[in-house]
Design a protein that fits this description.
Number of strands: 10
Strand content: 5-15%
CATH class of the largest domain: Mainly Alpha
Radius of gyration: 21 Å
Order of helices and strands: HHHHHEEEEEEEEHEEHHHH
Distance between the termini: 26 Å
Shape: globular
CATH architecture of the largest domain: Up-down Bundle
CATH topology of the largest domain: Butyryl-CoA Dehydrogenase, subunit A, domain 3
Helix content: 40-55%
Number of helices: 10
Largest sheet: 4 strands, mixed
Strand order of the largest sheet: 1-4-5-8
Length: about 375
């Protein structure tokens, strides 16, 4: 088995790393402090093809594979998790769903705008009363002449109020459970669409999160993505790819925290020598790097399997579980290595620590990942 990256992938990784260090790192702390959506840098990312990584070139995307996508998300996340979250959502959810379930007209209408970064996409599944229990959603889509009328509210929407296209899960048959869920494409500015104030979060402040509401919101028949009743299956299929993106993000944040701790431990002296020479610090750094490498390998394997056309429900959940929990341990240890300085905003590790926390929550909590993996254990036995 060949674990090496191609020359093209190495060149892409290097170019994006240089871009992130030059364009994102200098503004990341200010964006986090102000809670400001990073439109300026997102436009630049769009120009580089980073907002349509796996979208085919004929729609304006980069047309790359999922391994390349995972590598590039890690590079952006190492600079700033907020940018990587926006990148992961707009790449991995709206665009992937348009490619897998959209009509030619829907793809032509939306993919070029999303892939270029002119538009940002958002995913509306969770609700105040149905987070992990996604099939229990209450938003409805009532059939009327020429289309549907949506009513309800979606919670925890990344880029809510900023995105121009919302992929919305709503019940077209309230008595059919998960089989009654359908998927709709709703544009910002559609009558009846509203947005709550941005949530005041622990971390990832620049990746604005808000409630999105639908009040007697009419959308035409052409807004239906896939067929009626396919919405829950569509949503779950999107999460397989989305979880690879979040795993990559977690690896990137952890890597940034490790590098900050490594450099600090080389510069800081105590008792006449660099603190990394003390076993307590040296072993901590060794464990941090080992965990990062293990999580990266699991993530890239899930991406490689997806590229090979395999179903990756189990592998994506495993990668997301391991990477997100690893990122929280590594960022915690980075703060510990820096000591009091790690607790201040003079160094970025406190931001990495805050930003990592949500990786165990969004796109399915760690508990949900374990549920998915558990189910797959016995489904695999039945094959």
């Amino acid at each position: 088995m060949d674990f090496s990256l191609s020359e093209e992938q190495i060149a892409l990784m290097t170019a994006v790393r240089e871009f992130a260090r030059a364009e994102i790192v200098p503004v990341a702390a200010a964006l986090d402090r102000e809670g400001r959506f990073p439109w300026e840098t997102l436009r630049k990312m769009g120009a580089l093809g980073l907002l349509g990584v796996t979208t085919p070139e004929r729609y304006g995307g980069a047309g790359l594979d999922n391994v390349s996508y995972a590598i590039l998300v890690e590079e952006i996340a190492a600079a700033d998790a907020s940018h990587a979250t926006i990148m992961s959502v707009t790449n991995g959810l709206p665009q992937s769903l348009l490619l897998s379930h959209g009509t030619d007209e829907q793809r032509d209408a939306y993919l070029p705008k999303l892939a270029s970064g002119e538009w940002i996409g958002a995913f509306c599944l969770s609700e105040a009363h149905s987070g992990s229990d996604a099939a229990a959603l209450r938003t409805t889509a009532r059939r009327v002449d020429g289309g549907y009328v949506l009513d309800g509210a979606k919670a925890w929407v990344t880029s809510g109020g900023e995105a121009q296209l919302y992929v919305v899960m709503a019940k077209t048959d309230v008595g059919a459970g998960a089989r009654g869920v359908s998927t709709f494409l709703v544009e910002k500015g559609t009558a009846g669409v509203g947005f709550g104030k941005p949530e005041e979060k622990l971390g990832q402040h620049a990746a604005v999160t808000s409630t999105v509401t639908f009040d007697d919101c009419f959308v035409p028949d052409t807004a239906l993505l896939g067929k009626e009743g396919q919405g829950f299956v569509i949503a779950m299929s999107a999460l397989d790819g989305g979880r690879i993106g979040i795993a990559s993000l977690a690896v990137g944040v952890a890597r940034a925290a490790f590098e900050a701790a490594r450099d600090y431990a080389a510069e800081r002296t105590a008792f006449g020598k660099a603190i990394h020479e003390f076993q307590a610090i040296g072993f901590k750094l060794a464990d941090m790097l080992t965990q990062i490498e293990a999580a990266r390998l699991m993530t890239l394997r899930a991406a490689w399997l997806k590229d090979a056309g395999n179903r990756t429900t189990r592998e994506a959940a495993m990668a997301k579980l391991v990477a997100s929990e690893m990122a929280n341990r590594v960022t915690h240890d980075a703060v510990q290595v820096l000591g009091g300085y790690g607790y201040t905003k003079d160094y970025p590790v406190e931001r990495y620590f805050r930003d990592a926390r949500v990786t165990e929550i969004y796109e399915g909590t760690s508990e949900v990942q374990r549920m998915v993996i558990h189910r797959q254990i016995y489904r695999d036995l039945d094959r």
